[in-house]
Amino acid sequence: MHRCFLVPEIVDLICYQIQNGDGSPSEWLEALARLARTCQAVHEPALNYLWRELRSLMPLVKCMPADLLKVTQGRFPRVELVRPIVPSDWPRFKENARRVRTFGLGYGVGELTMETYQALSMAAGGQALLPNIQELVWNFSAASFPYIHLLTGSNITTFSLSNPALIPYISTMSLLTSMNTRYPGLTHLSLTDFREEVEVAAISSAVCGWNHFRYLKVGALSNDALVHIAALPSLSHLHLQYRAVDRSHIKYPLSRNSCAFPAVRTMIISSPDFSFCTDLLRSMSPGSSLKNINFSTTKFVPSTSMEWTNVIQALHDICDHSALEHLSLRDNEEDLDQFEDQYPNVVGPKHLKPLLAFSRLTSISLRANGGFDLDDPMVNDMAVAWPRLTNLRVSSDFAPSPRATISALTSLAQHCPRIMTLTMAFNAEPASIPTPTSSPRVSNTQLKSLNVENSPISHAPSVAAFLSDIFPKIATVFVNENDNIDEETELEKAWGEVQNLLWVFASVRDHETSRRLRMLQ
């Protein structure tokens, strides 16, 4: 045995690299099993990693004697008991169960029969089957939900539960009302799709009983719960999901400059409109080091220009300009065809200019149902202000004829060398396409995906030639489809021709490069 295997830290790193490498789960599980059989020094560490994460109790139950079990094979295997559990059946189960740290029960991973759960519960005598579990993720599996208490002890720090419609209501509410006493050390909580008034009240009451949250993802919260989490010193990730119907009674409870959410770095808020997000930002201290912000509306009408102005100005005034890296501000993406007159709500350069102060942005996604009205100077300012961009999305289902032209893409190619995906409407008519010049060529090889929204176009070859020149590695060109028309529109045909020509141009370049290399050899 090599001496390096006597160093626990080295063995742990080897196991970690196997588990987090490029292989599939089945591949790294097999590799860990082989490693565990290599020598005594790596046996225990490899087994610890092998059993660290489970998606079902089936692997543990299969560690029990074969004469105890009947396994029904199929798409979703099932295990049932054929005799009572006796004390001598437990040793291998318990030996491996103590290694489990994460348990995620979900749809399609195989299940135990209810009789098996009942037998395990009786035989365990009230003890947790997974005594050292720290993370529990419970999705879809409804029938086994009443036995959730079998799995967990008081060491749980991460709990995730979703799809409550599939779980018996009384069982769900019983869990929600007792969570803070059942799991006192919780630091990460995710409860999605709990939005009924009685559920919100139960979750809000439970949330007020925890003081060490680092990650919180829930639906609506009461004002008392909002005030409580706003003062938590360790909360770094906040995700709230309000519905459009909450608009009549939702009001952010804290005043300006309340020093709220001092440690939050990621903030994801879905609210009826941007005013809730604006008020929340204003309650924080100026210079807050937010890195990731995602605000979206759930109302079924476009956000007004004033709402956009207010939330963007609040971002500018509160967030550290050198900290913010990812920003998403998005209107509801539901079908809004009934709103014909969108243009009074258009978002233009004057509304967006405060965002230019955030020089470290790498990803920006903006969606205004009232439309955007950008021009070439504004696109150039955006490109110069955000040189680290990898993804830029400026989208809308409604917009006036774009003032920004295809020529503006040159600024993005020149000043954003890392940009990989771009969504933006622009005028691609022949008059807007720059003529070739003798100036140094601008070429960006990182952009792979271009979404042109509903950009007007009439001459595909000239557009394709220009795009191929500045973005020679474009692989896909998307256009907004008209869901009400079965046949391909003229706009879709034109941009489809652009994509085909881009592929041809790329192929020709590759052949030319290969030919030149052969000539140099």
Low-confidence stretches: none
Mean pLDDT: 87
Specify the structural class: alpha/beta
| Main CATH class of the domain at 372-521 | Alpha Beta
The total count of strands amounts to: 18
**The CATH architecture of the domain at 372-521:** Alpha-Beta Horseshoe
Helix content: 25-40%
Number of helices: 16
Cα shape: globular
Cα-based radius of gyration, to the nearest Å:
28 Å
Across the major sheet, the strand order is 1-4-6-7-8-9-10-11-12-13-14-15-16-17-18
What CATH calls the topology of the domain at 372-521 is Leucine-rich repeat, LRR (right-handed beta-alpha superhelix)
Chain oligomer state: single chain
Largest sheet: 15 strands, parallel
Terminal Cα span: 49 Å
Describe the 3D structure:
With 521 residues, the chain is α/β, with parallel strands linked by helices. Among the domains are: 1-50, no CATH class; 242-344; 372-521, Alpha-Beta Horseshoe (Leucine-rich repeat, LRR (right-handed beta-alpha superhelix)), CATH 3.80.10. The protein contains 16 helices and 18 strands. The chain has helices spanning 8-19, 25-36, 40-50, 58-61, 91-97, 114-124, 169-182, 197-207, 223-230, 274-282, 305-318, 349-352, 376-385, 409-415, 460-470, 490-520; strands at 53-54, 69-72, 78-81, 102-105, 111-112, 135-138, 158-161, 188-191, 215-218, 237-241, 266-271, 292-297, 326-330, 363-367, 391-395, 421-423, 449-451, 476-478. Strands 1-4-6-7-8-9-10-11-12-13-14-15-16-17-18 form a 15-stranded parallel sheet. Helix 10 runs parallel beside helix 11 (305-318) and helix 15 (460-470) crosses helix 16 (490-520). The radius of gyration is 28 Å and the shape is globular.
